[in-house]
Specification:
Bound molecules: 5'-deoxyadenosine, iron/sulfur cluster
Strand content: 15-25%
Distance between the termini: 53 Å
Strand order of the largest sheet: 2-1-3-4-5-6
Number of strands: 21
Radius of gyration: 22 Å
Shape: globular
Largest sheet: 6 strands, parallel
Number of helices: 14
Helix content: 25-40%
Length: about 450
């Protein structure tokens, strides 16, 4: 038997890339690869890249420049680039960095095994198609390795919304939902392998409309079916668009105990003028009404969001409207970014806000968000939560996991194993985590 080849994967960007990297590792597992954490030891280095904000491509090129000398040490080493930079740059990557052997876009990962065979023959391989076949059908796990208790599961990919700042509709393509039966089959398989919580992934996950037994199924329908899977205790989903939060999905938050009380619902800005220029197709007010309905259904829900500051034409008054919206919603978590120009998107043509002004706004917004985050973390002290135990902590006897609200929780003197869901009381709020004891 020949020694297995070693695969080093570096993943950038969103959770969907984390999921994709796992699928690629499994696909290459079929070609005799095992994963290594050491790039210097690898026979294949795969960068799974992100293109959402500026300088992404440049970062990839400098990383490739750093990796190139490893080829002199190991002549069998192959270098591969996957993800959204691969999709956007295509052949250009090999032109600029000839050390790259393989470039594969997100819709072609199921073709990796044949591409790998091709590069082992000394050729290069490039695939940035949007093929018709279902890549997930060809990316099934084998062998059935044990999994960590919380897993991602992609149910929908791509986006048809075309927000004026965003590259996703170009790099991930049009919205495609996986059939419900395939998702359920993958969920059952995950449960057999030790998973108890799934986070359903999609760039526009709440627009899910996969084929079901009686026509298309919505995300609410899919969640109700998943809740029936024996052994699957917790369900989450991300990322959602405010316009697709339908009544059925909001009702699911009230009625499905497996659906966790946490929701990531980006708004991007609190100014109607900017929302219009962003092509978001909603107003600040309509967003706040959605939040109101969700809170009526699930009063303890923790909300998170995404914000862009310094979008072209953003005035002080526009930014103040964002601050007001944040004060009104009070997010448990929120991610804020300075606008960055993405070539090929409609907003790329517009004049930028002074970068110093944008920096200042970003700092003010982040400070406000942090205050709320701390307040909400602090308000958890004394409360009883359920924690899915994910791993051992640093201290003896300590275990780490996530509460239903997605807070990271340390349990001291834990009487629990990885994969257990335990009821504990929060005794202390630290900056980024909570400490709990058994009751
Ligand atoms: N500039 C800054 N932030 C962006 N995002 C998407 N595109 C851009 C851009 N061009 C942010 C949005 C989105 C998150 C994933 O990244 O807030 O919700
Ligand atoms: Fe990008 Fe999300 Fe807007 Fe789609 S909905 S274009 S993924 S920001």
């Amino acid at each position: 038997m020949t020694a297995p080849k070693k695969l080093f994967i570096k993943t950038y960007g969103c959770q969907m890339n984390v999921y994709d990297s796992e699928r690629m590792a499994e696909a290459l597992g079929g070609q005799g690869y095992v994963e290594t954490q050491d790039a210097g030891d690898a026979d294949m280095i795969l960068l799974n890249t992100c293109h959402i904000r500026e300088k992404a491509a440049e970062k990839v090129y400098s990383e490739l420049g750093r990796l190139k000398p490893l080829k002199a040490l190991n002549p069998d080493l192959k270098i591969a680039v996957a993800g959204c930079v691969a999709q956007a740059e295509g052949e250009e990557i090999m032109r600029r960095q000839p050390a790259v052997d393989l470039v594969v876009g997100p819709q072609s990962y199921h073709r990796l095994p044949e591409m790998e065979a091709k590069i082992r023959r000394g050729e290069t391989a490039l695939d940035t198609d949007f093929p018709q076949e279902d890549k997930f059908e060809h990316l099934k796990a084998r062998p059935k390795a044990r999994r960590a208790p919380a897993a991602f599961l992609t149910v929908q990919e791509g986006c048809d919304k075309f927000c004026a700042f965003c590259v996703v509709p170009y790099t991930r393509g049009a919205e495609v939902s996986r059939p419900a039966a395939r998702v359920l089959e993958e969920a059952r398989d995950l449960v057999e392998r030790g998973v108890r919580e799934v986070t359903l992934l999609g760039q526009n996950v709440n627009a899910y409309h996969g084929a079901g037994p009686k026509g298309d199924m919505t995300l609410a329908g899919l969640i109700r079916e998943l809740a029936k899977v024996d052994g699957l205790e917790r369900i989450r989903y991300t990322t959602s668009h405010p316009n697709d939060m339908d009544d059925a999905l909001i009702a699911a938050h009230a009625e499905v105990p497996e659906l966790m009380p946490y929701l990531h619902l980006p708004v991007q800005s609190g100014s109607d003028h900017i929302l219009k220029r962003m092509n978001r197709n909603h107003t600040a007010e309509s967003y706040l009404r959605v939040i109101e309905r969700i809170r009526a259904a699930r009063p303890d829900i923790v909300l998170s969001g995404d914000f862009i500051v310094g979008f072209p034409e953003e005035s002080d008054a526009d930014f103040d409207a964002t601050m007001d919206l944040v004060r009104e919603v009070k997010y448990g978590y929120a991610y804020s970014f300075k606008y960055s120009t993405r070539p090929g998107t409609p907003a790329a043509e517009r004049a930028l806000v002074d970068p110093a002004v944008a920096d200042d706004r970003l700092q003010r917004l982040q400070a406000l968000i942090t205050t709320h985050q701390r307040e909400i973390q602090g308000s958890m002290v004394g409360r009883d939560v359920s924690v899915l135990v994910e791993r051992k902590g640093r201290e003896p006897g300590q275990m780490l996991g996530k509460s239903e609200y997605l807070h990271a929780v340390h349990i001291d003197q834990a009487q629990a194993e990885v994969g257990d869901i335990v009821q504990v009381r929060i005794v202390e709020a630290l900056t980024n985590s909570l400490t709990a004891r058994h009751r």
